[in-house]
Design a protein that fits this description.
The protein is an alpha/beta fold. The chain is built from 15 helices and 15 strands. The strands form 2 sheets. The protein has a 9-stranded mixed sheet, sandwiched between helices. Helix 1 (16-31) crosses helix 12, helix 6 packs antiparallel against helix 13 and helix 8 (228-253) packs across helix 13. The longest helix has 26 residues, at 228-253. The structure holds NADP nicotinamide-adenine-dinucleotide phosphate. NADP nicotinamide-adenine-dinucleotide phosphate is lined by residues 12-18, 45-47, 88-90, 120-123, 125, 151-152.
């Protein structure tokens, strides 16, 4: 790896994300030899810690994660390069102190000093953090590159996202900005690109001529837990649809880029977003279902008459040559029957049945399931003849599982891949400014329509039982089109919700 001096500065270095994800990911990368040599981590937060106190805090908090506990010796070496600066994002002088500390740590090096600023603080602090980084001269690239990783959520609507983009771009050029959607760091999500663009057999059928519909499910079995205060302001569309589900949709629907560099990939993804149909208000409300799990109103931090949806299902269309009139059904929710993320491609039924006489028997279509979690892998459902007389058919499953296919290698954590890419300057798996703004342009009209009192009759907030697959109205959304939700991955071998 490069010999240049590099520092990851975690603003919010004592928080939950730093403790559970960022520091364990950096440590794992260090153990694998995937980090620039001598990489330093400087954590910045308000509490009054010394370097040693911070190292101890991290060890105590993170040692149960990612097998840290068994690697005490390696941890000691890694933690020796970890430092702590106490300061307040709102206080410009704190950034002068941060600069002083960073400059001091860089002393004696070869003159280069690259810095990755990771904004792992509440979104309301993003703008101030960027402004104060610049005011302290910490964004100057005189002696090395400067990059900023920005956590989600990136804005809460189009206007706030544009405002944040403007504030960030007063300090950093777009090529220095790495907006995170950790879903893109997942191995199985990246496999979607390989699956589509490294296998010649799928591309000819990957279009409206062969595909009947696409279903994307990201279900969480947990309720909002202690995040009620945040969640009640946000809701499921901002929390999941605007980012993760639309990301998955773009990966399924995008055209092949000529090369796999970050700009080419991201151009193709943005083209998909721009092609998503924008229906009028009536059609928008008919094409979406919102739900709230029973008991949500009793969660800590949730308003007593909150109308915040914890479940959403919707039908979108991508109006281009490849996808015209193929519905993309999206659904996601909290407190659902299982934790599962899957993409189901349902192919068209055979045009003619050779094997039945008399009344038409419903022929099953081929179904391709791309399982993101759990059961990471790919399933293909196809018809086989049941042994014996006659021509009875049954649907069988041809499956590839990551855990059996790659027994030696464990699937890396999303944050490992993303941190490594940001350090290497590869922004392919990060969200570009125009993508984030397009995503808000898609969900804002729905959020506005739902917040309008008049919409309650057209688009009621359906209650659903925790541990179920959401409101039955979401099944109706598909049955009106003559379709049903499909489960392919994990424990739900059976179809139907
Ligand atoms: P958190 O646990 O509340 O941590 C916030 C961090 O910011 C703490 O280190 C806190 O430490 C510091 N902080 C707060 N106010 C500050 C100030 N004025 N000046 C300096 N430091 C300040 O939040 P989190 O869960 O780690 O989330 C961080 C970011 O990641 C958020 O944008 C969140 O939306 C995003 N995110 C988190 C997760 C997750 O799994 N946790 C997942 C996806 C996205 P002090 O109190 O010591 O100052």
């Amino acid at each position: 790896m490069t010999e240049e001096s590099t520092t990851v500065v975690i603003l919010g270095g004592t928080g939950d994300l730093a403790l559970r994800k960022l520091v364990p990911a950096l440590f794992t990368l260090a153990c694998k030899g995937h980090l620039p040599q001598g990489l330093r981590v400087v954590a910045f937060a308000r509490r009054d810690y010394s370097d040693d106190r911070y190292r101890e805090y991290m060890w105590n908090g993170a040692r149960e994660i990612g097998g840290l506990a068994a690697r005490r010796d390696e941890w000691e070496m890694f933690a020796g390069n970890m430092y702590y600066v106490s300061g307040d994002i709102d206080d410009p002088h704190s950034f002068d102190r941060l600069k002083h500390r960073l400059d001091g740590l860089d002393k004696g090096e070869d003159g280069t000093s690259n810095r990755l600023y990771y904004l792992s603080v509440a979104p309301r602090l993003f703008e101030t953090a960027v402004k104060n980084i610049a005011a302290a001269g910490l964004a100057n690239e005189d002696n090395g590159w400067r990059r900023a990783v920005i956590e989600k959520p990136f804005g809460h609507d189009l206007e706030s996202a544009q405002k944040l983009n403007r504030a960030v771009q007063e300090v950093f050029d777009e090529h220095q900005v790495y907006r995170i959607d950790h879903y893109l760091g997942k191995e199985t999500v990246q496999n979607l690109l390989v699956f589509r663009f490294a296998n010649a057999i799928f591309e000819p059928i990957w279009n409206r001529n062969y595909i009947d519909n696409v279903q994307i499910t990201v279900a969480e079995s947990v309720s909002v837990g202690d995040r009620g205060g945040y969640y009640d302001q946000s809701g499921v569309v901002r929390d999941m649809v605007q980012n993760h589900l639309l990301q998955l949709l773009t990966l399924v629907a995008m055209e092949p880029p000529n090369v796999a560099d970050s700009e080419s990939l991201r151009n193709k993804k943005v083209e998909v977003m721009q092609a998503i149909r924008r229906p009028d208000r009536g059609e928008l409300l008919r094409s979406a279902v919102r739900g709230q799990y029973e008991g949500y109103l009793g969660e800590d931090g949730v308003g007593e008459d909150s109308m915040t949806p914890t479940y959403a299902a919707m039908r979108l269309f991508v109006d281009n040559w490849r996808w015209r009139d193929v519905p993309f059904y999206l659904r996601t929710g909290k407190a659902m029957a299982d934790k599962v993320s899957e993409i189901v491609i349902q192919f068209q039924k055979p045009p003619h049945s050779l094997f039945q006489r008399g009344p038409t028997v419903d022929m099953s279509s081929n179904v391709l399931g791309i399982c993101l979690q759990p059961d990471e892998g790919v399933h293909m459902k196809f018809q086989v003849k049941v042994p014996g007389q006659g021509m009875e058919m049954e649907t069988m499953d041809m499956a590839f599982h990551y855990d059996s296919g790659f027994q030696e290698e464990s699937i890396p954590e999303a944050y490992e891949r993303l941190l490594q890419d940001a350090l290497a300057g590869d922004a392919s798996l990060f969200i570009r400014k125009d993508h984030i703004e397009e995503a808000w342009k898609i969900v804002d009209p729905l959020l506005e329509a739902w917040s309008d009192e008049r919409s309650t009759a057209d688009a009621p907030l359906h209650a659903y039982r925790p541990g179920s697959w959401g409101p039955t109205a979401a099944d109706d959304l598909l049955s009106r089109d003559g379709r049903t939700w499909q489960h392919v991955c994990g424990s739900h071998e059976a179809n139907g919700a």
